[in-house]
C-alpha cells in the first residue's frame, strides 16, 4: 500500500496555555522523524481511543501532568514524506502537576507573536497564527449607538484589553463609513488591536488593516485578498468550506442563538454549531445572541471564541 492510500494518522496535539498567554512547546527527541524540530506536546491517537483520550494519555506520559480542562480547537491535515497526519489541536487551560520532560525532550514556554524556538514543525505555522487571535471579537454598532458614543465605548474596551474589532455599518453612507474607519483604525493601531473592515477590500488596503467578508463576497472571489487578516462570515458547511478553500484566516459562524435583530429567524443551536466546526482547520468564532460570559460554552463546542455585537458595547 502506498502512503497515498494509507489512512491518515490521527494525532492529538496540546496547546498548554498559562494565563499570561504563553504556551509550552517540546523539541522532538533523537530517534523520531523530524528530531530537533519543535512541536506541541501530544502524539498519535491509538486504536479505540478518542482524540481527547489520546491527549490526556500523551500529556501524562510525556510531561507527567493530569489534564483537568481542555477545549477542542482546530484540526489540520498535513502530508509529510513519512506520514499523512490529521492534527487535532486542543487548548489545555487546566492541569495538575508541573510539566517535566519525561522523554528527555527539551521544553520551552513561548508566545505566538514571538516564538522563541525554531525550527517549528512545518504543519504548525498556521497554528501559531491562529493562537495570536484573541478570544473575543467585537463587531461595531455605531449606527445604533451613534458615532460619538461608539468611539467612547471603543476607547474604553480597548483600554480594557479588547484586541480584535470588526467595523460593520451596513446602512452608513460610504463617506461617513470611511471617516469612521480612519478614526477606528487609529485607535486600534494605538492599542495594538487588529481591525477588520467589513466588505471593503480597497479601504482595508488603504488603511493597512484586515478585511471581513460576507458569504456572498467569498463566492465571487477567485483568491484571498492580500491583506494581513481576512475573515469570513459563514452560515453553513458549504460557506465554511469555501472560506477555508480561499484561505480565510478566521470564520464567524452564525446565528447560534436567536438575536434581537433577526427575531424568529432559524438558528444553528450549539449541537449543530459543534458539528459544523468539529474539523475546521481555521479558528471559528460563534456569533448570534451571545454575551462574553458564553465564552466557556462556545469553546466547549469547538469555537475559537465569541463574536459580539450588542454585548460588546454595553
Ligand atoms: N505531537 C505533535 N505532532 C505533530 C505536531 N505537528 C505535526 O506535524 N506533528 C506530526 C509529527 C508526527 O508525524 C506526528 C506525531 O507523531 P509522533 O511520532 O510524535 O507520535 P507519538 O508521540 O505517538 O510517537 P511514536 O508512537 O512514534 O513514538 O504528527 C505537533 O504540534 N505535535
From TrEMBL:
GO terms for molecular function: 8-oxo-7,8-dihydrodeoxyguanosine triphosphate pyrophosphatase activity; 8-oxo-7,8-dihydroguanosine triphosphate pyrophosphatase activity; 8-oxo-dGDP phosphatase activity; 8-oxo-GDP phosphatase activity; metal ion binding. Its EC number is 3.6.1.55. InterPro entries: Aldolase_TIM, MutT-like, Nudix_hydrolase, NUDIX_hydrolase-like_dom_sf, NUDIX_hydrolase_CS, NUDIX_hydrolase_dom, ThiamineP_synth_sf, ThiamineP_synth_TenI. SUPFAM superfamilies: Nudix, Thiamin phosphate synthase. It comes from the Bacteria. Residues 7-135 form the Nudix hydrolase domain. It is an enzyme of class 3 (hydrolase). It catalyses: 8-oxo-GTP + H2O = 8-oxo-GMP + diphosphate + H(+); 8-oxo-dGTP + H2O = 8-oxo-dGMP + diphosphate + H(+). It holds the Pfam family NUDIX. Its cofactor is Mg(2+). Keywords: DNA damage, DNA repair, DNA replication, Hydrolase, Magnesium, Metal-binding, Mutator protein. One of its GO terms (biological process) is thiamine biosynthetic process. Belongs to the Nudix hydrolase family. This is 8-oxo-dGTP diphosphatase. It comes from Sulfuritortus calidifontis.
Amino acid at each position: 500500500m502506498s502512503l497515498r492510500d494509507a489512512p491518515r494518522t490521527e494525532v492529538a496535539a496540546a496547546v498548554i496555555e498559562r494565563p499570561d498567554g504563553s504556551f509550552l512547546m517540546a523539541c522532538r527527541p533523537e530517534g523520531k522523524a523530524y528530531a530537533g524540530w519543535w512541536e506541541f506536546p501530544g502524539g498519535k491517537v491509538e486504536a479505540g481511543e478518542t482524540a481527547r483520550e489520546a491527549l490526556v494519555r500523551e500529556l501524562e506520559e510525556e510531561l507527567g501532568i493530569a489534564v483537568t480542562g481542555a477545549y477542542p480547537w482546530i484540526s489540520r491535515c498535513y502530508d509529510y514524506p513519512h506520514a499523512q497526519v490529521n492534527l487535532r489541536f486542543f487548548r489545555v487551560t487546566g492541569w495538575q502537576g508541573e510539566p517535566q520532560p519525561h522523554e528527555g525532550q527539551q521544553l520551552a514556554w513561548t508566545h505566538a507573536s514571538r516564538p522563541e524556538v525554531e525550527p517549528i514543525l512545518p504543519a504548525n505555522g498556521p497554528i501559531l497564527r491562529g493562537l495570536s487571535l484573541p478570544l473575543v471579537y467585537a463587531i461595531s454598532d455605531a449606527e445604533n449607538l451613534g458615532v460619538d458614543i461608539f468611539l467612547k465605548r471603543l476607547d474604553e474596551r480597548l483600554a480594557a484589553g479588547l484586541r480584535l474589532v470588526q467595523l460593520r455599518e451596513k446602512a452608513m453612507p460610504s463617506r461617513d463609513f470611511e471617516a469612521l474607519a480612519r478614526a477606528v483604525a487609529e485607535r486600534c493601531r494605538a492599542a495594538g488591536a487588529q481591525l477588520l473592515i467589513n466588505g471593503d477590500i480597497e479601504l482595508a488596503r488603504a488603511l493597512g488593516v484586515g478585511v471581513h467578508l460576507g458569504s456572498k463576497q467569498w463566492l465571487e472571489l477567485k483568491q484571498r485578498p492580500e491583506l494581513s487578516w481576512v475573515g469570513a462570515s459563514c452560515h453553513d458547511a458549504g460557506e465554511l468550506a469555501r472560506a477555508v478553500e480561499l484561505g480565510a484566516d478566521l470564520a464567524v459562524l452564525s446565528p447560534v442563538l436567536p438575536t434581537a435583530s433577526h427575531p424568529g429567524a432559524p438558528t444553528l443551536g450549539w449541537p449543530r454549531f459543534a458539528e459544523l466546526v468539529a474539523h475546521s482547520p481555521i479558528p471559528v468564532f460563534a456569533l448570534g445572541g451571545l454575551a462574553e460570559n458564553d465564552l466557556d460554552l462556545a469553546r466547549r463546542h469547538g469555537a475559537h471564541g465569541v463574536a459580539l455585537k450588542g454585548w460588546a458595547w454595553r
